[in-house]
Specification:
Blueprint: H1 3-98
């Protein structure tokens, strides 16, 4: 091998190494971009987890409120039933007192 061939071979190797360095730089830049995107995705996942936790807590409160309202409604319905029964008994007692009905009777 002559000096010229060695120099040419050395030059070719330098060009190859330069291209490899350029590719490595591009790959490093792409990797940094991927890392930034992954960080944003992780941050978004954290925020979404917090939002889901808040929604779950609110849903629990709404379910507890609905259950409380159901119990109160049952209590109110039973009180109304009792009231109507007492009113009905009172009206029947008035009708039986003198034998007349309230609708058409004279007093």
């Amino acid at each position: 091998m002559t000096i010229q061939e060695i120099e040419r071979s050395f030059q070719v190797h330098q060009e190859i190494f330069a291209r490899i360095d350029e590719r490595l730089d591009r790959m490093a830049a792409e990797a940094e971009g991927h890392e930034r995107r992954l960080k944003r995705i992780e941050d978004n996942l954290i925020v979404q987890g917090e939002i889901l936790n808040r929604v779950d807590q609110r849903l629990d409160r709404v379910a507890a409120t609905a259950e409380s309202h159901d119990k109160q409604l049952v209590l109110m319905q039973s009180a109304m039933t009792s009231l109507f029964q007492r009113m009905d008994a009172f009206i029947r007692g008035l009708e039986r007192g003198n034998g007349d009905s309230l609708a058409g009777g004279s007093r």
